[in-house]
Design brief:
Elements (H helix, E strand, L loop, with lengths): L5 H12 L5 E3 L13 E2 L1 H6 L4 H6 L4 E4 L1 E6 L5 E4 L5 E4 L1 H12 L2 E3 L7 E4 L2 E4 L3 E3 L2 E3 L6 H7 L8 E9 L13 E4 L5 E8 L2 E8 L5 H14 L12 E5 L10 E2 L2 E3 L15 H17 L10 H10 L8 H14 L3 H13 L3
Parallel strand pairs: 1-7, 4-13, 11-18
Antiparallel strand pairs: 2-6, 3-6, 4-5, 8-9, 9-10, 12-15, 12-16, 13-14, 14-15, 17-18
Helix pairs in contact: 1-4, 1-7, 7-8
Bound molecules: flavin-adenine dinucleotide.
Length: 352
Amino acid sequence: MVGGGPAGSTCARVLQNAGWNVLVIDRARFPRDKVCAGWVTPGVFRLLDLDPDEYRATGLTIQPITGFRTSILGSPSIETRYFRPVSYAIRRCEFDNFLLVRSKARVLEETPLASLERRGDTWIANHHIEARIVIGAGGHFCPVARQMRGEHDLVQAVVAREAEFRVEDDECEVDGEVPELFFCRDLEGYAWCVRKGGHLNIGIGRRDKSHFNDHVENFIRFLERTRRARRASLVRWHGHAYLASGTGPRPLTGDGLMVVGDAAGLAYPESGEGIRPAVESGRLAAETLVAGGGRIGRDDLQPYEAELRRRYPPAPRTPAALTGAVKALGRGLMRSPAFTRHVLIDRWFLRA
Ligand SMILES: Cc1cc2nc3c(=O)[nH]c(=O)nc-3n(C[C@H](O)[C@H](O)[C@H](O)COP(=O)(O)OP(=O)(O)OC[C@H]3O[C@@H](n4cnc5c(N)ncnc54)[C@H](O)[C@@H]3O)c2cc1C
């Protein structure tokens, strides 16, 4: 397994439980951070066979979310409340480490994949690690995915920047139970404030890369002006990228090769939620291997590819001529509490 994030650790755990001999290599040392807001839907816990209370009992941060505050950045917001937790906020440095340890797989940390060669029916990684099957779970820049598709990737990624830092109660007015989402006026992306215990996560992601720094600067000024994050310009921001599912045909399998999670480009296009697809694909890949009884040829791995393409179909395209009108309509609809609850939050973000 190349990569020990949620996709890799989930896949490793299912294989390990089925009696496979799994080795995870990761270039990082865990606990490591991952650029991410850390918002997880209940489906993630179901797919992980993990009770949120069991996770909380370990002493790790888990913030129940019972509502969302949404707006076009700078305009009045709408609050959508529920009577139960509809999501959770976790810290990726804790969550990913917990999942990796829980997988019980052998882990080689600080070991980037530097080379991958085929000898007969065996893969040789870094000139000395032998494996019959290699699973690429190395995130957006996964070297296994790159080897499978070649250097050229014409698919446009979502670009994002994020910061997570400690806050005191008197310097942050964001309510942990009600994260805030601020949509860009052109609806090409959104920014967020997610509070989790003593930490605040702020960030912005956009499909359109142009003038990205201006959007980040504008958001930072807004956070400081509205006292949501008074030190937003002083904290360290990290950049990253991800692919929304259905944005292009990337190979998902090869002879003795599979890719899962961000390496396969699976984040949900409307919300950018990628942890659930990572866990789901990691699990599906492992279940395909177990069901195949150890057969790992390209044809044997097809059920994984077919099922993943069925669950993550191509995103519908908006005709260019309609785009302006559709966006104006979208901005109008976002002032409607009913649209916000039933479509934006329930359907697009919670996929209820
Ligand atoms: C700014 C931002 C905010 C986001 N917010 C959310 C959110 O709130 N909720 C949500 O569900 N999703 C969110 N996502 C998406 C989510 O973070 C990803 O979809 C998710 O982390 C994918 O998991 P993964 O296991 O596929 O990859 P990753 O979590 O990226 O794990 C990949 C692992 O591979 C390792 N690796 C990389 N290269 C190599 C190499 N060469 N050799 C060995 N190891 C390697 C890395 O060290 C890492 O540990 C966000 C993404 C961004 C960019």
